[in-house]
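Slide 14.
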Amino acid sequence: MLDKVRAVVPWLAVAAVVIAMGYQQGLFTLVGRLAPGPAKAVALPGGGVSDGDRCGTKGYHRFRPPADAVAPLPRDEPPAGPRLVLGAYGFQQGPRTPARFTIGLLLTPGGKQPLELSRTLGADGVAVEIEGPDGLVGGAHGLPVTWREPASTGPGHKMRVGARSDGSAEVVLPVRALCPGQDGAEVMKKLQAPIDSHNTITGQPPYTLTVSFSDPGVGKLRASLGSPDRGDVLAAGNLIPPDPETGRP
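Slide 15: predicted structure.
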């Protein structure tokens, strides 16, 4: 019996080394890091809560977005008051990195007065929703935000976004915020607009991406500027503004 054990141990050691190397090289799927979440609200790594209990719901938004956030204005129509615009966004996954969507946020006051916001972008943080033809396929609320510009708070512990120095930040949506059966890489593909062989956009993205937050600083600036928009919610989406002449993206 002792001889058998001695014969098996070296093979177990070799197997352990092979498995470890496989993980390092990404040859094995790290299920806990790549799998979507359940169809219920769950806490997310890094902060925030998933919208798993809303999977399949059509038109769901944690914060009610202004109409022009989900139906963008024509390209030549200037913004009135503070605006949120999506920067670069993408999907990342790796053997040592939890799978996630990263979304860049660009903020502008839309006037000469500065836009003053809390570091967390409101008491409830940032909300993200991804919706397909059959309803919500992923989303979360209470997500933390990482500021790029400004890099630090100003008077009153506020993030001050000036007319000459627009603000930029980033929010992360973990893959666990996706609904059951969804694949992060496939969802990312459907968040992009279709193009033809000449790289010309031919329509809107199959899936919509909406990012929003509610901060009193937004409502305060809107009121002072006499903006037609009301309330504290700023939102942005991935739909492409239509051409004012053709009406196409």
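Speaker note: Helices lie at 2-24, 31-34, 67-70, 184-190, 216-225.
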